[in-house]
Amino acid sequence: MAGLYIHIPFCRTRCIYCDFCSSTLGDDAQARYADALCNEMDARRDYCHTRRMETLYIGGGTPSLLNDTLLERILCHARRVFDFPVDAEVTVEANPDDINPARMRRWKEVLGINRLSMGVQSFQEAELRWMNRRHTGRQAREAVRSAYEAGLENISIDLIYGLPGSDIHSWSDTLRQALALPVCHLSAYCLSVEPRTPLGKMCATKKTVLPDEEVSEAQYRLLVEATSKAGFVHYEISNFARPTYHARHNAAYWDGTPYLGLGAGAHSFDGHTRRANTDNVQTYINADGHPPFTTETLSDSERANETVFTALRTAKGLDLRRFRKQFGDDALRYILQQAARHLATHRLVREGDTLRLSKEGVFVSDSIVADLMDVD
Ligand code: SF4
Questions:
Q1: Of 15, 30, 192, 193, which is best to mutate to test ligand 1, by the most ligand atoms within 8 angstroms of its C-beta?
Q2: What are the tens digits of pLDDT across the range 328-353?
Q3: pTM of the predicted model over 0.90
Q4: pLDDT tens for residues 200-246?
């Protein structure tokens, strides 16, 4: 099993918190980028030692900013080069203001896209303006409805909590509006401040002050409660899905499944070594399918730590038998020793060969995971 990720590093404008690989280059650069992507597909088709790809995820940036001719070209080339099963999950990220009913019908019927991941972030107009998002709450609601009515019923939306000026009431209203829509997956992240972004500078100069930790903790608790009441399964710390609608592509990252990442700034993993393409969009375009990259081979202890980190974030938890097979008796002994006090306080639960966070443990996951991650 493997997954294919394609990065589209273009946005019309930049959100103040964003440090993803993305630029505001226009049509000409986008067309040349698509050429480079197709060439990279040809050059790296055997990276995962199989051309069979279970999932395809086109992320960004803003993939919906590409015109449909370019999008179709990329998708068709991917289908020629790789082998996708008929039920492959094909996700495209979109911004609400790029969506209209005719386009959604075309995406589903002609381009074969069967999952939409929409960057909504908030339904509060003041918060959207503060983030420099291009859309309004109303546009987001209409975009979800038009995608759903076009038959794209597997819709995920992203939200951000912990925003300056937000409180439990504004967040509650955002959640209420989100859960009233026909969405079957929700990803919600606490705002993080990256130093290189405009937000990073605003925080450094005290022009912006983040809410107290108690506010974002209360918002997270409300998120868990509201999604559960609405019938969503909390299957990963930041991800909630209606039964059977968990993101198959992301689940593969958490499982350690190999994946091929194409495009500027894209990461790949062949089972042992990680690779990161240059995140300079112009350099990527000029390299025409053979971009500069860096690699990182993880030591056993780094892989063990990463396994603990990703597995404990999921509802499936850490498979202790598999962990022992991969990393040995000493590593397992260390984990169980570190887990003991969290098991005693019922923040971790052990069921047979599985170790997972309890319902309460989810709220203090960072400190528990950090305690268990020092395997060396
Ligand atoms: S749309 Fe997404 S990728 Fe583009 S600037 Fe905003 S957060 Fe970053």
A1: 15
A2: 999 999 999 999 999 999 999 999 99
A3: yes
A4: 999 999 999 999 999 999 999 999 999 999 999 999 999 999 999 99
Q: Please give the pLDDT value at position 376.
A: 57
Reported residue count of the chain is: 376
**Ligand 1: does its nearest atom lie under 6 Å from the Cβ of 119?**
yes
Q: Is residue 263 a contact partner of residue 7, using CB atoms and an 8 Å limit?
A: yes
Give the DSSP per-residue string, 59-70.
EES-GGGS-HHH
Q: Pairing mode, if any, of strands 239-241 and 293-297? A: unpaired
Q: Does residue 317 line the site of ligand 1, with CB under 6 A?
A: no
Eight-state DSSP code of residue 209: -
**Calpha distance 251→134 (Å, rounded):** 30
pLDDT digits over 158-183, tens only? 999 999 999 999 999 999 999 999 99
225-257 as b/e: b if 16+ CB within 10 A: ebbeebebbbbbbbbbbbeebbbbbbbbbbebb
Paired tokens of 189: 């992240």
Residue 17's H or E segment, with its range, is none
The finding on whether 11 has its CB within 6 A of some atom of ligand 1 is yes
Query: What is the DSSP-derived secondary structure letter of residue 283?
Result: H
Cα-to-centroid distance, 212 and ligand 1 (Å): 25
Determine the distance separating the centroid of ligand 1 and the alpha carbon of 10, expressed in angstroms: 8
DSSP 218-260: HHHHHHHHHHHHTT-EEEETTEEESTT-S-HHHHHHHHT--EE
Q: Going from the N-terminus, what domains does the chain have, and what CATH number goes with each?
A: 3-254 (3.20.20.70), 300-372 (1.10.10.920)
- Please answer whether residues 68 and 103 qualify as being in contact, where contact means their C-beta atoms are separated by less than 8 angstroms: yes
Q: Tokens 């980028």 sit at which residue?
A: 33
Which 3 state secondary structure label does DSSP give 43? Answer: helix
State how far the Cα of 269 lies from the Cα of 21, in Å rounded to an integer: 18
The sign one gets for the Cα dihedral 308, 311, 315, 321 is negative
Token pair, residue 77, equals 């080339």
Atom of ligand 1 nearest to the CA of 93: 2
**Centre of ligand 1 from the C-alpha of residue 230, in Å:** 28
Most ligand 1 atoms within 8 A of CB, residue of 11, 16, 197 to mutate: 11
